[in-house]
């Protein structure tokens, strides 16, 4: 046993959220200690994709140029497949619309990404201890005492504050009674690396796959370099259990589907063994603050409810946390009340669009709606292929850089009404032998009503609980959407904190 070691802030976990928190705190002159149980580089279950918002933070940390040298394939295009038919193939609609963001993303394997970010945190002044497994964190308003194991030794650490960045099964969250396990908001993922043979005009794009077999969830294939891809699936845990499905079996079916239907995958070969993991999405996020500290990243459920993307939201949560922690240290207020600004700011920053997306994620939980939802998605993708303005304004469901939920929903509903009103003229045009265009019809409304009726009679109790949850989520979203002034202030703060220009201590 060794003597206790001191710091102003202890960060438990050295992934993207933990590294950003340590980097942001250290460049303010705050003594920061990172405790990471693994030895980097290490593998992590993830889609590996980093969008332009995330790349801006990597640029600020100084690690983007090195990562770009290893990953020379900027990604700005995507294809969406519905039941193995390509419904959309073109630019990612919202990339390149904001001057302060890059117009592309990168697929960066997590062993490379996390290692580079942790090195950047260390370069900023953070003290990094790898292979240090935290087993207990005692947190009070008067200070933090952490017990960890490194090899056969037990080591003690002390600080004024702590950051729980230690993932979905966070020891820090568990110790504070904040660990959530809501199966409605837990997604199970399985991924592997593979070798493919690019065949189309734009080989450097993402592919996203939706089907009834994967509902509620999706499959992905993201290019890395040299013919390698990251491919995988993610499904909601509750729905998987209710259907009696197994993710490994679904993954095998997905890979077989790629080989049979995707032009680049006729000779697909897995280059790594498939591995699995879980994420807890934002609808489960609690206050994420307590006497002596905060939760960020996966530990705080900062994960997009629709896409399962957690890298960028986790980094942004860490930026907001670093500002609140620095203020608490300056004022000498280490209790949960002294960290209230963290919850206020992350709610203002994330709630509006994350609760909007959580509403639709909850809608997807109903298995009876799988077919009409896929039909709606297919129609929307075909419309986006025909109309770039519609594509830009309606794509907020899938990771818009600056989402506007009300505008997105208004665009969708207005276009749906327009499609229904134009159904008869378009039917006449088809009968006259003109080219067929994607169009909604009254039959789509009938299919939705039939699906809801089947759901009600199949399991009235579950259907009622599901309906009530939808209404509750919608009310939460409406309340969050009213906080426009706070939302603008939070976005400005994140923008300033991710400025590439370094702060002075």
Features:
8-stranded mixed sheet, 505 residues, 16 helices, single chain, FAD/NAD(P)-binding domain, D-Amino Acid Oxidase, Chain A, domain 2, globular, alpha/beta
Molecular shape:
globular
CATH C-level category of the largest domain: Alpha Beta
From the N-terminal CA to the C-terminal CA, the straight-line distance is 34 Å
Averaged pLDDT? 87
Helix content: 40-55%
Count the helices. How many? 16
Give the structural class.
alpha/beta
Fold-level CATH name of the largest domain: FAD/NAD(P)-binding domain
If you compute it from the alpha carbons, what radius of gyration comes out, rounded to the nearest whole angstrom? Answer: 23 Å
CATH A-level architecture of the largest domain: 3-Layer(bba) Sandwich
Largest sheet: 8 strands, mixed
Strand content: 15-25%
Total count of domains: 3
Uncertain stretches: 426-430
Q: Can you identify the CATH superfamily of the largest domain?
A: FAD/NAD(P)-binding domain
Q: How many β-strand stretches?
A: 18
Outline the structure in words.
This protein has about 500 residues and is of the alpha/beta class. Helices cover about 45% and strands about 20% of the residues. Strands 1, 2, 7, 8, 9, 10, 17 and 18 form an eight-stranded mixed sheet that branches. It starts with a strand and ends in an 8-residue tail after the last helix. It is globular and about 65 Å long.
